[in-house]
């Protein structure tokens, strides 16, 4: 088994013995067929990634109990959203004959994010980076929704609405915490730098760069909205 740099990755989350846990993308069952197996495996993988999202948000609540109440409330709402996503992916996975634990899983997001020691650093990486990239990926998938049955398309559409909110509140609070104390900007840089060193160890040659389109950037507050015409 590949060992990851302990300075960049925290301990993994607990999983029961149904699951075969891998460390890097190349160890996974990366299938490229058109017989439906790729979609089923993706759902299993995504189900676990949504569990990771829930676990990260929960850890943010327990690790930073003195965070502003409004921010803690937004994180708690994300926990609820992620739990619904887990159930939705599991339902779609199992209705297609899948069995939980049938495919290997990665827990890299949890290990990367919880290794970042500051809340603002975690928000900058998890919410403003990973979740934002997820929005772009979901948008592109929905452009080809005719490939999926209505159940999968509805799942992706509902997930998209939640992910937009996760990026929006993360972006808002990164800006708010820096406004309260400009020194917090250093923790953003440190968190992003740490993630930039860790992620290539997971993805290897499979890493891709997703550029957010301007519509998404406006929806999540990364750029200002277009002024209304008068």
What does this protein structure show overall?
With 230 residues, this protein is an all-alpha fold. The chain has a single domain (21-220), classed as Up-down Bundle (Ferritin), CATH 1.20.1260. Helix content is 62%, strand content 2%. The chain has seven helices and two strands, in the order βααβααααα. Strands 1-2 form a two-stranded parallel sheet. It is globular and about 50 Å long. The mean pLDDT is 87.
Tags for this model:
globular; 2 strands; Ferritin; 230 residues; mainly alpha; 7 helices; two-stranded parallel sheet
Chain-wise SSE layout:
Blueprint: E1 21-22, H1 37-63, H2 69-95, E2 105-106, H3 108-113, H4 119-142, H5 150-180, H6 184-203, H7 214-220
Parallel strand pairs: 1-2
Helix pairs in contact: 1-2, 2-5, 4-5, 4-6
Q: Tell me, rounded to a whole number, the average pLDDT.
A: 87
Query: What is the name of the CATH architecture?
Result: Up-down Bundle
Give the total of domains: 1
Provide the low-confidence segments as ranges: none
SSE sequence, one letter per element: EHHEHHHHH
Beta-strand percentage range? under 5%
State the CATH topology.
Answer: Ferritin
User: How are the strands ordered across the major sheet?
Assistant: 1-2
Count the strands?
2
What is the radius of gyration computed over CA atoms, rounded to a whole number of angstroms?
18 Å
Number of helices: 7
Report how far the terminal alpha carbons are from each other.
Answer: 62 Å
The helical percent reads 55-70%
CATH class category name: Mainly Alpha
How would you name the CATH homologous superfamily? Answer: Ferritin, core subunit, four-helix bundle
Q: Largest sheet, if any?
A: 2 strands, parallel
